[in-house]
Amino acid sequence: MSSNPSIEDSHKLWSSRLHTEVLFWERWIKTGGLNWPGDFQWRTNPNSQLQPELAALLQSPTAKIIDVGAGPLTSVGKEWKGHKLEVTAVDPLAEEFSSLLLKYNVVAPVQTVKAEAEALSDFFLEDSFDLAMARNCLDHSYDPFLAIRQMLLVTKAGGTVYLKHLVDEGAREGYGGLHQWDFAEQAGDFVISAPARAPVNVSQELGGVSDISVSSSGGWITVVMRKR
Which of 31, 59, 62, 184 has the highest local Cβ count within 10 Å? Predict the structure, then answer.
């Protein structure tokens, strides 16, 4: 995924725009969710139940889930009836988010810890999680393909990487803020693209190490990758 501009350029741009993400989440926390108060209530509820679509991807009575790019409050349910559930939330802006939660007196049921999606294996052992998920965030990263490879690395064999993102969000947002990338389904494959870069067919690149299914509905693309 290295063409002109380079990933180094993407990282510089990403770093220079991180403050826009902090500003968004501060408004979200201050207002109790902006236009999505139900989402705020869900994320702050320590008794929220694991979403059925995530539970369906798990194969044992105990599960470890990592929410990559979780923001200040993970969207993953905190309990799974009849099962043991451990949720880890990570975000490169975890320290800034912790300060915001303290400022507005919001308690996080799961504390987000600092880690870049592109460097998960620097923070976690390989084959650690039953499910690695990322929702509406990897298109905000500086190297989403590397981030996905890292998610697979820290996922157990037989475990799942689950991705859900808006289709072509970069183009829709005019590539402003952290929106550098477009995610789309093309002929049944998951493809990442960006201006002046060669597209990456993730299904082809990672099909040798995982079984991949891709679906699109309502402006969202969902990718399920079962690690071999």
Answer: 184
